[in-house]
Amino acid sequence: MHSIQLVIDYWVLLVPLLLHGLGILFIFDVLMHGRTSQGTIAWVMALFFFPYLAVFLYMMFGARRIEDYTAAHQHGTTDIHQLGKQLRQDKKLRELMVRETPQIDVLSDIYQLPVMKGNRCTILVNGPATFESILQGIAEARHYILIQFFIVHADGIGNRLKDALIERARAGVRVYFLYDRVGSVRLARAYTNALRAAGVHIGVFRVGRGWLNRFRINFRNHRKIVVVDGEKSWVGGHNVGDMYLGKSRRFSGWRDTHVKMAGPVTLGVQLSFVEDWHWACGRLPEVSWEPPPTFGSEPVLCIPTGPGDMVESCSLMMVQAINAATRRCWMISPYFVPDVAVIKALQLAAMRGVDVRILIPANPDKRVVWWAAHSYLFEVAVAGVRMYTYREGFLHQKVFLVDDCLAGIGTANLDNRSLRINFEITMTFTDADFIRRVEAMCLDDFALSDPLTTDDVYRRSLAFRLAIRSARLFSPIL
């Protein structure tokens, strides 16, 4: 008994010392890499005075950038770094690169990817249209398929996708399947084992390099990408699951948007996938970089963003889109937890007479994020920004429309997680006919929505108003 007591006493002394030591170590990390003074002060105070909780929170949520990913992405001599550089310098591809409007050209310059002409783009409204298009594209694959999703469920549509990939793999098509470890944490091993047994290459995106990163769940690969033969690609808001087909028991419907692109811009989407695959698996997939045929005339820019970028690229994209607006700026997102730069851009746009509208769900899937969104209403409404709530089921699409010159469809939400922490991808368009189709889709959505005003919040209970202010405190990680 005496020896057991000594062991207990030893650990009672050692654990607090260890946590305090880690707290001091993490304080140095915060001081060296903190993004804002407010965030740095908050972490320093928490780690110093409350290390028993703050140490574990910092291990999961503290960092805002993956340093070694950044080095490989921007400065390295790795295969993937050279591949991206060679692609941008390809003579055949340069003939397909165009300079468009200032609104999109500055985005092209920031992300070092060209606007590619010669595409045919199709808006896919809601799950049935999206997955039927994707499954048809997979069935037509002759050489390879690249497929990447944040969340994959082994349900009806998930199994249809699995069976389609297995059929193509057995037919000799190279299939690369990449999913996020956190988003698809519930994906059964039997699902991936069946794919692997059929010859499908499986990749799991995780941030597990180095002992500290092993515990971090902050960085998530939120991209949803399908590429077939380097010619056709699909990007948008849908994950894989029956709920995305509108079969959720919780919601009466599921409103989401994807876009199919046939043409040269697919190589930009492919490059985004290949970078993620290289990070996850340490090797390059066997794909073609030959310029695909032109299927139409639409110019498109692919914008992959993430914490591996040297600047906060997703936030820059949103701010540039808002600043470019002279007549209207419509932004649709399931989550509205913006950073300061986006808030100021929205306020300024409304003050200069732009029709600024924000559309969020009336029925949330994440209550805390929904509460936080209401807290921002007071800041934007005072400048003339109008907010709406979509009442027909759950709204999950990520779309923006600026004047008659720029539209975006992709995976990035209007929240801090997408703006700074997640890996995202957004497709931007300038074709006049495509813009009109996006406008018509947005008008249909606004017709099924209700205005949200500050009076609506003031009429709610004190408990609700306290909840939205409390939820605001967690906005940096929402």
Automatic annotation (TrEMBL):
Organism: Desulfosarcina widdelii
Family annotation (SUPFAM superfamilies): Phospholipase D/nuclease
Top EC class for this record: transferase
Any one of the GO CC terms: plasma membrane
Protein name: Cardiolipin synthase
Domain PLD phosphodiesterase residue range list: 217-244, 391-418
EC identifiers of the protein: 2.7.8.-
Compartments reported by the entry: Cell membrane
UniProt GO molecular function: cardiolipin synthase activity
Keyword terms, alphabetized: Cell membrane, Lipid biosynthesis, Lipid metabolism, Membrane, Phospholipid biosynthesis, Phospholipid metabolism, Repeat, Transferase, Transmembrane, Transmembrane helix
Alphabetized NCBIfam families for the sequence: bac_cardiolipin (TIGR04265)
SMART domains: PLDc (SM00155)
InterPro entries: Cardiolipin_synthase, CLS_N, PLD-like_dom, PLipase_D/transphosphatidylase
Mode of membrane association: Multi-pass membrane protein
GO biological-process terms attached to the record: cardiolipin biosynthetic process
Transmembrane segments: 7-28, 40-61
Superkingdom, taxonomy of origin: Bacteria
